[in-house]
Write a structure and sequence with these properties.
Largest sheet: 2 strands, parallel
Helix content: 25-40%
Strand content: 15-25%
């Protein structure tokens, strides 16, 4: 594991899960000059129980430019959209 000293940051995001990662990416997109630091205690990839999203999140995925990729890797079952991954 690499340890770096953090002296200054414009924004510190705690947690690299779906919400934290999306927030950090959007913050950097709209403030490219800002120093955005994302802190996560776990190693990736990691085992995680059933991540899911709601339709209201689609706008965020589109803004991040990952909506089409997520849509292509999902499937619908019993009226629900499912994404199956490793």
């Amino acid at each position: 594991m690499t340890t770096k000293t953090l002296e200054t940051a414009d924004c510190v995001v705690l947690g690299g899960g779906p919400a934290g990662s999306a927030f950090a990416a959007i913050a950097k997109k709209y403030a490219p000059e800002a120093r955005i630091v994302l802190l996560e205690k776990e190693r990736f990839p990691r085992w995680h129980i059933g991540e899911s999203t709601i339709p209201a999140a689609n706008g965020v995925f589109k803004d991040l430019g990952v909506y089409e990729e997520l849509l292509a890797s999902s499937r619908q079952e019993d009226g629900r959209d499912l994404r199956v991954g490793p």
